[in-house]
Design goal:
Distance between the termini: 59 Å
CATH topology: tt1808, chain A
Number of domains: 1
Helix content: 10-25%
Largest sheet: 6 strands, mixed
Strand content: 25-35%
Radius of gyration: 18 Å
Shape: globular
Structural class: alpha+beta
């Protein structure tokens, strides 16, 4: 029998398996990987161009939403049994996460900062967030120097897409009266 006659199947890694791999040391504790659709995806290296808006947004979020939401930087979110992506920032519902990781029902906003990962963040990752019901995603697009907002889920897709540049403001849908100046986190290049 030749290889051409065999059908090879994808064996997805589950969130539980991924967690065990980390606990057993199969994956280094500092490994830059995330689980998406049952596959381990190597994350892009962190650059200063990436970290600058992450740090600035983190500071803004902590100051602005203290007591109303939890700001989570680069922690995983379980969005289905085979996906636990690690967004750059999240605003989460205030609750105790001591005994479990946040899931898609806890997420108010996901922020991805994209330098070299724009195609992945805008494609496969955004699609996974939409399918799982994450209500709002911001992609801080460092390639085109703008913020892309994806919101208003409709049949597993984002119905609203906005492209905002420096000079504009943006507010999380969960906190519509708390507009943030894009100039405060997106540096002029």
């Amino acid at each position: 029998m030749s290889d051409m006659a065999l059908e090879y199947k994808h064996f997805p890694i589950t969130v539980e398996m991924f967690s065990r791999m980390e606990q057993m040391g199969i994956l280094a504790s500092d490994a830059r990987v995330e689980l998406l659709d049952g596959e381990l995806i190597e994350l892009a290296p962190i650059s200063s161009e990436h970290q600058d808006p992450v740090r600035k947004l983190n500071a803004i979020f902590v100051k602005r939403f203290d007591g109303r939401a939890i700001v989570d930087g680069s922690g995983p979110v379980i969005i289905d049994p085979i996906s636990a992506p690690q967004p750059d920032l999240m605003l989460l519902v205030r609750r105790d996460y001591l005994r479990r990781l946040p899931d898609q029902h806890d997420v108010l906003l996901v922020v991805e900062v994209s330098v070299s990962s724009l195609r992945y963040d805008r494609g496969r990752k955004l699609s996974t967030y939409a399918r799982s019901g994450v209500p709002e995603v911001w992609i801080v697009n460092m390639v085109d120097h703008r913020v892309e907002r994806y919101a208003d889920l409709d049949d597993g897709m984002y119905a609203t897409v906005e492209h905002l540049r420096r000079g504009a403001t943006i507010a999380p849908r969960a906190f519509p009266d708390d507009a943030i100046a894009i100039d405060d986190f997106l540096a002029e290049l």
